[in-house]
Amino acid sequence: MINKTMSHYLILAQSEVTALALGGWLELLNEPELQPTDPKCIIWDREYYSGGEGAVLAYEYLASAIECVSGGNEGKIPLNEIVVLVDTVRPKALSAIAEGITWDNLIAMLILTFPEIHWVFGVILGSLEDLNEQEEHKAKFLVAEHSLPSLLSCPRRDAIFDSLELRQWVKDCTVKFDKGNNLNLPNRMHKAAAIEDEKSFAYFHGYTSFRYGYRTDVVTSWTLMSKLFNDGQNDKGHGFELLLEDMSLNFPDKPLNKNILDFDIDNDKKQGRAYHFLRLHSACKIHENSKFRILITTGQDMPCHDTLKKNLIYLKEHKKEGCGRKVLKPSGGMMDLWQKAGLFRFLREKLNRRGNAKGFFWPPRLLTPDAFAEGIGHGAPGKLMLIAETLLNRALETLPKANTVQDFIQGAVLATEAAELLSGMTPTMTLQALVLKHEFEARAECAFVGVGYHFDVKTRADEIENEVNAIAVRFAKNKRRESELHSLITIMNRLAQVFREAGRFEEEHECMVRMRRWHRHLVGLKVTNPFRLLTNGILWYAEFLLASFPLFMLVILLWLGASCMAWWFIDGSWKAAISGVWSAFFSGTAAPDKSSWSLIGITCIIVASGFFHLGVLVAYIYSLISRR
């Protein structure tokens, strides 16, 4: 039985000999001496896990053991705290879908299963000679950041947003191994950095950039900032395309005599952010080579009343127009942050969602419906489905225990990774991942006291609609639209519940508007009875009115105007028309001066429309009052 006590360092080995060899490193890390029966020492019994199901059983055992030991009594893996030491690995063999049962295949599967864990390899085998220049650079970076000496010489970089590119390397190896060339996993080609002294903000901003296609470093310490932006290699840029940067950084390990509030260099005082971190000197493109540098601040100008203004001028001078701007905290959620940062405007790629980093395609680019009709395409590889299922189970277990922004962000990453591994090839499971992803994101926005009151639900709803539409292509043609609408209603219903629990009434209302619309479309697919179609049309019109109060008022004015014109056309008196229409619409008691059937008919229509619209208006106002 595995002990539930959490361990910050775990050993994953193929034999007791290599496990004990790795155990020697634990003493250098001030850890207790490794014992043969220590639960943090996980050994793969190659002979026991053999046969047809050997790979599946071995993966399930190792995944369960890692989760149990690293989760502790609370049952959740803490962020940026768990390190797994692996005895050997071959980087070129880290494919998650390799056939049979191999050590490298198991490690690749586990790397994708635990995105919050930092992996370190004792011995890295295999030649890198046959790799191209870009792949060789990635492999050398992997070796440097994931070798045993890195534990002693490098500040730890949070792996949750794949800052060290290990998960992307595994995905690339997996795509290469796919002989059918049907895998189309999203590719994060560019990097971002969320520089914050408050961890909630750091993870919130970091996840936002991650969901839009950036591998992101969460920078919450002076030590890590020094490594990334001032490590002595001044002939190279920092390599981040996007910087989400707080102005006032009071890191716990920040020296007291260092002032980095001002972005520019103050050579006289030997202060300034660019002075202490040369790679953040935007005036020098060799060192500071980001495309977007976003200053995120509460807007305080103390202690120097003009610091914010000077920083904005600095960004305006050294960045392209619109690429260096200010975003005030608190922002109104993830979409609002991206909007105010101008990234929806600048990050536009053909046949891709606006706001996505270059090269990152999501929703997944799937085969056309005609291709499916011809029998082309199939579900996700079995091992990817196994990994995705484990990720979803972990996310579901996280949900009832989550109570902080970091917890919800962690769950969102698990669901996001599951959705991207499946990429719509297994549509039902991908949709399950999308439900969890958006629920975790909404809960993170609501749990974060630093987020603005109104969230951009409309943009989120549009994104959900595009995602579900792309994934529903996998369903049969005659069930596609129905399955799509069912999925949309399910996801939006979960979001409405989240906003209702948080007291976010306007956001809940927007969710209800979308749900009603989709529900009417769903009913319209199934109804053929003319009377039911008429009823459905009336309900659709009522929901159209409830979508927006200003729109509701505009529609009433249009009804009044059209009715007055019709009355005047028959009666010839504007005074009688205005008086009669007003009385008929709002009181239902007016009678025309002339006893013509035309005026009587118009009066009846006006009375009926007034009764209907005023009834909807009363119901709308009551719903607003009752929710508050």
UniProtKB/TrEMBL annotation:
Residues spanning the membrane: 538-560, 572-591, 597-622
Keywords (A to Z) from UniProt: Membrane, Transmembrane, Transmembrane helix
Record carries keyword Transmembrane: yes
Protein name, UniProt field: Uncharacterized protein
Species the sequence originates in: Methylomonas fluvii
Phylogenetic classification of the source organism: Bacteria, Pseudomonadati, Pseudomonadota, Gammaproteobacteria, Methylococcales
